[in-house]
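Students often ask what a holo structure prediction actually looks like on paper. The answer is less mysterious than it sounds. You provide the chain, you provide the ligand, and the output is a string of discrete structure tokens encoding the 3D arrangement of the protein together with guanosine-5'-triphosphate.
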Amino acid sequence: MKAGFVTIFGKPNAGKSTLLNALLGEKLAIVSPKVQTTRHRIKGILTQPEYQIIFSDTPGIIEPKYKLHERMMRAVKSAIEDADVALLLVDVNEAWEECDAIFSALHLKAPAIVIINKTDTANAEKLEKGKTFFSTKPYAKEIISIAALNGSGIAELLQTILKYLPEGEPFFAEDEITDLPERFFVAEIIREKIYRHLEDEIPYQTTVVVHEFKQKSSLIKISANIIVQRETQKAIILGEGGKMIKTIGSEARKEIETFVGQKVFLELFVKVRPKWRENDTLLKEYGYG
Ligand SMILES: Nc1nc2c(ncn2[C@@H]2O[C@H](COP(=O)(O)OP(=O)(O)OP(=O)(O)O)[C@@H](O)[C@H]2O)c(=O)[nH]1
Ligand SMILES: [Mg+2]
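The corresponding structure tokens follow.
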């Protein structure tokens, strides 16, 4: 039996969360076309008769500007320490030198697989150049190209990961898929809809907190607060006649129902908390401990 921790690192928007979902074969992490979608380390557990892999999705690596960013980078650091294998994810279209600088600065002790993603968006020549660029880097034990969005290359990637995975007994029961509670994923699903429907600074100045999660006889009742920094943002999230929050709520509810496998009654509130991203007490209260 093989078992171990495999962590996905990379710049924002490289496709880390998409890759986690592709490896697990189900949607656990939220995804968006905007940068800085993921704010926590999210473990996804893949158990097979011959192995157990505990994957971690992490926030995209950035230079912190707010305390919120510092917490996000803390989540990245914690994931460096227990990684048995590192997956260094690169968008084929981004600046490879920058990725190389970031990967070198991780000072990884674990073997690393460089993964060139979004190959569906590049031609063969560009891809070859990328492979050649990373082939000379000391941390790159292997280089693999994938398209996480359509699953291409995922089977080969799994085989490569298994080569480097240590022998050992499983850490989690076989039916466990994550170590985070359902209400965390509920808040994330709501946050994803905000990233999808709202522009500019709003997604970045917003967080979601589930404050009620109650099993009733035939459904789960969920209440959540959408936290913003300014009154003007509250008005935009509500939308004209409450249209925007209705859209967010109904899309989120459908996805939450699939996730929990039950009918859900979802209630959303918008609260203004100026500068919450800089406030230690609020950050802690909102789950950025
Ligand atoms: N064309 C294409 N798009 C992809 C692929 N993989 C991911 N994407 C898209 O890239 C965008 C970012 O994907 P995410 O998975 O959210 O990226 P991330 O690295 O987790 O981003 P952060 O959480 O912000 O660090 C989304 O719009 C994805 O649909 C791929 O293989 N091909
Ligand atoms: Mg992500």
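The beta strands are 2-10, 42-48, 51-57, 85-91, 112-117, 140-145, 207-215, 220-228, 264-272.
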